[in-house]
Specification:
By secondary structure, the protein is mainly alpha-helical. It is 43% helix and 2% strand. The chain contains 14 helices and four strands. The chain has a two-stranded antiparallel sheet. Its main location: plastid.
Length: 372
């Protein structure tokens, strides 16, 4: 869930830990993997009864959607890009929010459509980021819904979509627009979290214990103020991560586990201000080349983020200040060392943390939620 990130977040692919894009940029940094990762996924999918490719955030949790049919802002004139953003915004803002509970059958069918989308667009990182950024605005000190923020679908409104940390997420909305129109009985809040969890699982990650039934925020007046999402390069990275995630009600274990989603995606300097223009891992597809990834196989969800950050042997792999902090801070380091040595432990804790994040601030109908 990169996609600045920070959990990765601010504007790269890890929601909470991705590098934040400059406020002046409207480009998207969706993440994609290398040819090696693509071939790995192809081999994996060919052995399954379903021909689905598994991959991909921000963050992610937000890198560039290189194999998406969407054009990056760098390849569009400023005017045409603005027009496309406006068109997507009109589509989402004009559709009434689903105030009742999501339909279980539609949720199941939408999940299959999301898998197909992932197979063809390699958009796992940006879908992780979409779910994370909608949920990551939660403030546990505010009781009222939807003022408290969190997973309520408010990210679809233009005022929140234009927050600097959400640069490029208009492309994620564009990707899932047809699915939302097809399944009108699903709330935006549920669709965002369904897409995020499905992307993790299809990339080879753990099964997320999700529940659905989230109620949608009804209008732009329900959007949180800007500035609730994490930054990737603050003066005191460990303290910053705690300030942001403790406000959400998450703890040190959650912070480190969620940071592991940076195993997916890449960061582009022209979009986020972080990373190299190109590396040996990103000079080829799938999708447009370029950017810098955290791991060699950046469309595969595993524990390689922790092993690579720990060793710091490869200059072609990205290490943000917030990444380095998980091995420098004494409390974070206990979990990071464990995850580097034990992928099963990482998967177990990540699944719990992702589910916890996806429920933040949500109003459920029915109160106990829906399991599909």
């Amino acid at each position: 869930m990169a996609e600045r990130v920070s959990l990765t977040l601010n504007s790269t692919s890890f929601f909470l830990l991705s590098p934040p894009p400059p406020k002046t940029t409207t480009t998207m940094s969706s993440s994609l993997r290398t040819t090696t990762a693509a071939s790995h996924l192809l081999r994996r999918s060919s052995s399954s009864s379903r021909s689905t490719l598994t991959l991909s955030s921000s963050i992610s949790f937000t890198r560039s959607l290189v194999s998406s049919p969407l054009l990056s802002s760098s390849s569009l004139s400023q005017k045409s890009y603005r027009n496309r953003v406006a068109s997507v915004n009109r589509s989402f803002n004009s559709t009434a929010a689903t105030k009742c509970s999501s339909d279980p059958d539609q949720l199941k069918n939408a999940r299959e459509d999301i898998k197909e989308l992932l197979n063809t667009k390699f958009c796992h990182p940006i879908l992780v980021r979409l779910g994370w950024h909608d949920a990551g605005t939660y403030n546990k000190n505010i009781n009222e819904w939807p003022q408290r923020g969190g997973a309520n679908g408010s990210l679809r409104f233009d005022i929140e979509l234009k927050h600097a940390a959400n640069a490029g997420l208009v492309n994620a909305l564009n990707l899932i627009k047809d699915i939302k129109e097809k399944y009108s009985g699903i709330t935006y809040a549920d669709l965002f979290q369904l897409a995020s969890a499905t992307a993790i699982e299809e990339a080879g990650g753990p099964k997320i214990p999700m529940k659905y039934g989230r109620v949608d925020a009804s209008g732009p007046e329900d959007c949180p103020e800007e500035g609730r999402l994490p930054d990737a390069g603050p003066p005191s990275p460990a303290n910053h991560l705690r300030e942001v995630f403790y406000r959400m009600g998450l703890d040190d274990k959650d912070i480190v586990a969620l940071s592991g989603a940076h195993t997916l995606g890449r960061s582009r300097p022209e979009r986020s201000g972080w990373g190299k223009p190109e590396t040996k891992y990103t000079k080829e597809g799938p999708g447009a080349p370029g950017g810098q990834s955290w791991t060699p196989e950046w469309l595969k969800f595993d524990n390689s983020y922790f092993t690579e950050i720990k060793e710091k042997r490869d200059e072609d792999l990205l290490v943000l200040p917030t990444d380095a902090a998980i091995f420098e801070d004494s409390s974070f380091k206990v979990y990071a060392e464990n995850y580097a040595a034990d992928q099963n432990a990482f998967f177990k804790d990540y699944a719990v943390a992702h589910a916890k994040l996806s429920n933040l601030g949500a109003e459920f109908n029915p109160p106990e939620g829906i399991v599909i």
